[in-house]
Design a protein that fits this description.
heterodimer, A: alpha+beta, 4 helices, 22% strand, globular, B: alpha+beta, nine-stranded mixed β-sheet, six-stranded antiparallel β-sheet, 16% helix
Chain lengths: 92, 585
């Protein structure tokens, strides 16, 4: 595992065996400038398809898959997807 | 007649009819929705709202030629009843209240008038025709009259299916299948109504635009996929598009370098605009800021909400950021004074450490600098332990502390920390700052980020009960989140009406009775309501010039904005460049 490629939230999630083990995590994969064809096959096997935008693509990954991707030179950064909130229904 | 259940205006009409016959109803027509007043072939009838028991027991057997109730869900049903049958309806056990439909005036809602929108549209003839409005939200009530025939596609990310080009999950729906996707929250329907609803009274800003809707699971990565999807569909149709995002969080760096903001900045361009809400944390103490000197330590105090066992344990998540040239160590102090060791940065190994304190378990994550901005990010998660109290197990109240130690400080040593969920934890003390509260995606450099202005504070609900919101009329809404960004960049951009706004209601959502205006509309507040107002304005501008880019849109909006009491062109971290005046666009 190349921990330096993981953002704090993903590192924290993997530090929790309950989350990092059995439950897949939705992860944003940021790619390096030069992505080899092999990378497309690897990402395709993880459910990523279509265009590979440099600013990132998302996939549901196990802890082992995160570790595998972190070791790839064509992966720049791995970030945990976070849940956003709707901005209304604030009690007046 | 059970008069306790009958609205006074309807009771008055009923009594007039009983005393003086059909002719006496003429004076009531302007007050209650009486029909067949002049026809002699049918008895006079009245259009009503019926507030019934949750399951509506007994209503089905009641219906005949004199009583017709429309299909629907929930407590409030609409229908038409003859005045001769009103007594029978009022005496049904399952009926709680009968209120007449009231004739409405044909006028725009307060929000439109106070931003000179009618004058702008009348003067230009613009309606958003030929423009795609993208709504990435909780879904849409596709059968609502406000959207009939104008929803092009829905990508429901929560349904099982093969997905779309932007993501192999969810289902894409068109035509009759649109109804498969339901807005059970009601937020997306309300937002869509503000941007592009067609309604004579509470119509949206761009009622001629067409809609592409993404019902999202709210994961930021999937919201980003939704933005790409809308722009791709619009591109295939050869149309300009504006995407509205009335959502956000506090988990990012607050400087526009997070991936969600990166996607927005990459996707927008000529004819492709994104509008975002600023957030509703204006009165919440979610941000603290301290300066930590070399070999000095500073403490931030944080209070946590209490909870009872049986409910999901609330985890307080504190998201901290400081400059990449500095090195800070982080420790947590429990309410009784127990403290974790100071944890330094771990760049080449797992940066996660867990600790156990008497009042709870702690996880601290201190990785090396984030390559997106070169700054350090740390996370502190506090899971309070339940302690016994009278009657139930509750978390121990008290103030938790976050201690920061300057191990290697080359700058002012500024540290900013956000509580990710204000319902779980908020800061206390001198370090609290009412600034830098706009999170992603509102911090995206090229997004148009919108604060909320209060154009209405009083309303009458469907049952005729008056209500008042605790907000200052014709002023910035106090809940609207303040900027600027952590790097000093200006956010929010502009202000638009966000409270209290009447717009479309989803029949699949549970709307509090107090917020129900009629059988099609509900009232809400938030920057969620302000953003689609501007998205609608952008749709009008794109109809006029389909090549407008984010810089062009922002420039036009800024020129049409003003902060009350400040010189034209002034920026304010609460207002941005101020309330938009559509008459100046």
């Amino acid at each position: 595992m190349e921990w330096g490629k993981l953002d704090a939230a993903l590192a924290a999630a993997l530090g929790d065996r309950r989350k990092g083990g059995a439950i897949p995590l939705t992860v944003l994969i940021e790619l390096a400038d030069d992505v080899p064809e092999l990378a497309r096959d690897t990402l395709g096997a993880l459910g990523v398809r279509g265009e590979l935008p440099q600013e990132g693509c998302s996939a549901r990954l196990s802890a082992d898959q995160v570790a595998m991707l972190s070791d790839q030179p064509w992966v720049r950064r791995l970030r945990l997807a976070t849940t956003l909130r709707l901005h209304s229904d604030h009690p007046p | 007649m059970n008069y306790d259940k009958v609205d006074p205006a309807l009771a008055a009409a009923f009594d007039s009819f009983k005393r003086e016959g059909r002719a006496a109803l003429a004076s009531h027509v302007g007050v209650v929705g009486v029909v067949s007043v002049e026809r002699t072939a049918r008895p006079p009838r009245v259009v009503v709202f019926v507030d019934c028991d949750d399951d509506g027991d007994g209503l089905a057997g009641l219906e005949d030629r004199e009583v017709t109730l429309n299909a629907g869900e929930g407590r409030i049903r609409t229908g038409i009843v003859s005045l001769d049958s009103l007594e029978r309806l009022s005496e049904q056990e399952s009926v709680r209240r009968i209120v007449p439909a009231r004739p409405l005036r044909l006028h725009m809602d307060e929000a439109s008038a106070k931003t000179n929108l009618p004058a702008f549209r009348n003067g230009t003839g613009l309606s958003g025709q030929g423009v795609v409005v993208g709504i990435v939200d909780s879904g849409i009530e596709s059968t609502h009259e406000a959207f009939v025939g104008r929803i092009l596609r829905v990508w429901d990310q929560t349904l099982p299916g093969p997905g779309v080009a932007e993501g192999a999950y969810g289902a894409e729906l068109t035509g009759d299948l649109l109804q498969v996707s339901q807005d059970k929250v009601g937020h997306g329907t309300h937002v869509a109504g503000i941007a592009a609803g067609a309604d004579e009274t509470y119509g949206g800003v761009a009622p001629g635009a067409e809609l592409v809707v993404v019902k999202t699971d709210l994961l930021d990565a999937h919201v980003a996929d939704g933005v790409r999807y809308v722009f791709r569909v619009a591109s295939e149709l050869g149309r300009p598009a504006v995407v509205n995002l009335s959502l956000g969080g506090q988990s990012d760096a607050h400087d526009g370098t997070d991936p969600m903001s990166g996607v927005i900045d990459a996707e927008v361009g000529p004819g492709r605009i994104v509008c975002c809400s600023a957030g509703n944390e204006g009165v919440d103490n979610i941000h603290a800021q301290v300066e930590v000197g070399q070999d000095r330590s500073r403490r931030l105090s944080c209070s946590m909400s209490t909870w009872s066992t049986g409910a999901p344990a609330p985890v307080a998540i504190l998201n901290g950021w400081y400059g990449g040239g500095d090195e800070m160590a982080v420790a947590v102090v429990s309410p009784s004074g127990a403290q974790t060791p100071f944890q330094p940065t771990f760049a080449d190994e797992s940066p996660v450490r867990t600790y156990s304190l008497p009042e709870g378990s702690i996880r601290v994550t201190t990785p090396g600098p984030d390559p997106a901005n070169g700054d350090h990010n740390f996370l502190v998660e506090i899971l309070p332990a339940p302690t016994q109290s009278v009657g139930a197990a509750e978390s121990k109240p008290g103030s938790w502390g976050l201690r920061l130690r300057g191990d290697h400080v080359t700058t002012a040593g500024r540290v900013d920390v956000w509580s990710v969920d204000p319902t779980v934890a908020q800061f206390t003390g001198r370090a609290v700052k009412d600034s830098l509260k706009v999170g992603s995606p509102g911090v995206a450099s090229k997004a148009v980020t919108v604060a909320s202005y209060t154009t209405r504070v009083q309303w009458v609900d469907v049952m005729g009960h008056p209500h008042e919101a605790g907000l200052e009329l014709d002023d910035i809404s106090d809940f609207s989140s303040e900027g600027p960004r952590r790097d000093g960049a200006e956010k929010p951009d502009v202000t638009a009406p966000g409270a209290m706004i009447v717009s479309s209601m989803s029949v699949h959502s549970g709307v509090p009775l107090d917020w129900l205006i009629d059988d099609r509309n509900t009232i809400k507040a938030g920057t969620s309501m302000a953003s689609p107002f501007v998205a609608g304005l952008v749709a009008l501008l794109l109809e006029r010039d389909p090549s407008l880019d984010p810089d062009g849109v922002k420039s036009m909006l800024r020129a049409a904005c003003a902060v009350p009491g400040q010189a034209a062109g002034s920026f304010d971290p609460k207002w941005g460049y101020g309330l938009v005046d559509a008459g100046k666009l």
